[in-house]
Amino acid sequence: MARYYFHLANGHETVPDEDGIELDDLAEACAEAVGAVEELRRNDPSAAAKWKGWRLDVADASGAVVFSIGLDDPLR
User: Fold this and answer.
1) Contact yes or no for 26/66 (Cβ under 8 A)
2) Do 9 and 53 contact (CB within 8 A), yes or no?
3) What kind and span of H or E run contains 5?
């Protein structure tokens, strides 16, 4: 188990995830991040313009960003 943090960032400001969540591994963190972005898009599809240029940075317990997902990027 490892703790991962899901920060919202746009290059000018960051909305930090102070708590993070415990997950089994990086693959589970990736699935959680994709699910969060998909849920955000489902809940307010018209908000896509507001999220242009924002990304979800996933960081490990050391604070290193292990991957990012653009909120306005297509998910695969």
Assistant:
1) yes
2) no
3) strand 2-9
**Which residues are CB-contacts of 65 (< 8 A; sequence separation ≥ 6)?**
57, 58, 59
Say which residue the tokens 């963190």 belong to.
29
Tokens of 3: 């703790």
Asked whether the whole model's pTM tops 0.70, one would answer: yes
Give the residue among 46, 42, 43, 57 at the shortest CA–CA distance from 8.
57
Q: Which residues pair with 1 in a beta bridge?
A: none
Tens-digit pLDDT string for the chain (76 aa): 999 999 999 989 999 999 999 999 999 999 999 988 888 778 877 776 778 889 999 999 999 999 999 887 666 5
Chain centre to alpha carbon of residue 66: 11
